[in-house]
Amino acid sequence: MPISLSAKKSLRVAKRNHKTNVVLKQKFKSTAKKFQEKPTSEGLIKVVSLLDKLDKGHLFHHNKVNRMKSRFSKMVSVKAEIKIENPAKKKVKKAVKKVVKKS
Is 97 left (phi over 0), alpha (psi -120 to 50) or beta? Predict the structure, then answer.
């Protein structure tokens, strides 16, 4: 049992953080399980978003997050389903002037 005021406060903070951490981890587990049953690009976006949040909150190590992202993305055929949000640059064909030589 904490005795000093600062130790009591740190216990309160730890309890509060523990609750939020457990909620985030459970949300990730359920989302990942749904994604593994039926991998779609929308599901991949949700899973990657949650993984980024877990990495930002230091709940998972960043190497673990990167490894999981890689494995989840392999489940979805990346070339077929995921559309790149950045549109490709439009190629503008330059008009070529034909010079006719007069002889």
Answer: beta
How many CB atoms lie under 10 A from the CB of residue 28? 20
Whole-model pTM? 0.67
Q: Which of 58, 50, 59 is nearest to 32 (CA)?
A: 50
**Cα–Cα distance, 2 to 13 (Å, whole number):** 13
User: Are 17 and 34 contacting, i.e. CB atoms less than 8 angstroms apart?
Assistant: no
How far is residue 30's CA from residue 84's CA, in Å, rounded to a whole number? 26
18-69 pLDDT tens trace: 999 999 999 999 999 999 998 988 999 999 999 999 999 999 999 999 999 9
